[in-house]
Amino acid sequence: MGNRAIAEIQFADYIFPAFDQIVNEAAKFRYRSGNQFNCGGLTIRAPYGAVGHGGHYHSQSPEAFFCHVPGIKVVIPRNPQQAKGLLLSCIRDPNPVVFFEPKWLYRLAVEEVPEKDYMLPLSEAEVIREGSDITLVGWGAQLLIMEQACVEAEKDGISCELIDLKTLIPWDKETVEASVNKTGRLLVSHEAPITGGFGAEISASIVDRCFLRLEAPVARVCGLDTPFPLVFEPFYMPTKNKILDAIKSTVGY
User: Fold this and answer.
1) Of 78, 223, 239, which Cα lies nearest the Cα of 148?
2) DSSP readout, 4-37?
3) pTM (2 decimals)?
4) Pairing relationship of beta strands 186-193 and 219-223 according to DSSP bridges
5) What are the pLDDT digits (tens) for 60-111?
6) For residue 59, pLDDT beyond 80
7) Per CATH, the architecture of 126-251 is what?
8) Domain boundaries 6-107, CATH class
9) Transmembrane residues, as ranges (predicted)?
């Protein structure tokens, strides 16, 4: 009694057999009980996203499936410091949380992580880079690619503001809205297929909130509407050059 439940799915691609229990049971347990019970602070960890050689069973980004479910929180870190602080916040949150871990963090990310206990707030986006011409929004591993595109865009005189959502549900609309009201433009990028991806929800929400401030249509640079390929992964991914082209197109609209 009193312990926190932490489940680990080897790859996010394998989470679907548990979909019914997560969506129809865990997500609704508090609501069904009239707030008398929760799921024991259930946190589900799952590595997600491209890894360079994973193919269609080890590279998917299924975050949008869970963002559609009331009662679940969805959190994705971009680096080791965030991974620890956000994971501890998820574990101590009474609501069920799906915590997606970018696979590249396991092998490529090197960073000093404090040994002490610390938590990072959920549903609070971080402005990684301030700018004035266009707002870029992303999460997880994609932020490294987006930051590279921002650096290249700066060489052409384009000032990019880059925002890490960290929490997709519930996401920090206010921070993104304030940024878009300043820049007048928005680009969202994620590895998941573009159709039905969470970028579409961000786009629709910001159009509702910032319509009269927008100088161009909202741009999305995402994965393709195909199964995740193996040898064609470089063509599938939303790369630095694809993002850079979209930045230039949006600013020059």
Assistant:
1) 239
2) PPEEE-SSGGG-GGGHHIIIIIGGGHHHHTTTS-
3) 0.95
4) parallel
5) 999 999 999 999 999 999 999 999 999 999 999 999 999 999 998 887 768 8
6) yes
7) 3-Layer(aba) Sandwich (3.40)
8) alpha beta
9) none
